[in-house]
Amino acid sequence: MKYYLITCMQGHHGRGHHAEITFAMMAQNLIEAQDKAKRMPSVKHSRGILMGREITEEEYYERRKISAYDRVYGGK
């Protein structure tokens, strides 16, 4: 398995507007990681993927400590 950061467009911000959200994904390859990210809640499915890159295992586990949604919205 490899580790990836996938940046997606997040919807529900009004017509023509979006926010960005970045998920840490574990997958066999970049395409599989992007497909997993497209299925995450609130991600725009038609043109949702902005960027993807491979990361280290340490960076993956560091990113997974905090939810991607908490990083965007400031947590609880």
What's the helix and strand layout?
Layout: E1 2-10, E2 19-27, H1 30-38, E3 49-55, H2 57-64, H3 68-73
Antiparallel strand pairs: 1-2, 1-3
Output the strand order for the largest sheet.
2-1-3
Largest sheet: 3 strands, antiparallel
By DSSP (H or I, 4+ residues per run), the number of helices equals 3
Radius of gyration: 12 Å
How many E strands?
3
The domain tally reads: 1
Order of helices and strands: EEHEHH
Task: Return the average pLDDT rounded to an integer.
Answer: 86
Shape, principal axes of CA atoms: globular
The helicity comes to: 25-40%
Oligomer: single chain
Q: Which structural class do you get from the secondary structure elements? A: alpha+beta
Runs in which pLDDT lies below 50 for 5 or more consecutive residues are: none
Terminal Cα span: 32 Å
Strand content: 25-35%
List keywords for this structure.
single chain; 76 residues; alpha+beta; three-stranded antiparallel β-sheet; 3 helices; 3 strands
Structure description:
With 76 residues, this protein is of the alpha+beta class. The protein has one domain (2-73). The chain contains three helices and three strands. The protein has helices at residues 30-38, 57-64, 68-73, and strands at 2-10, 19-27, 49-55. The relative contact order is 0.28.
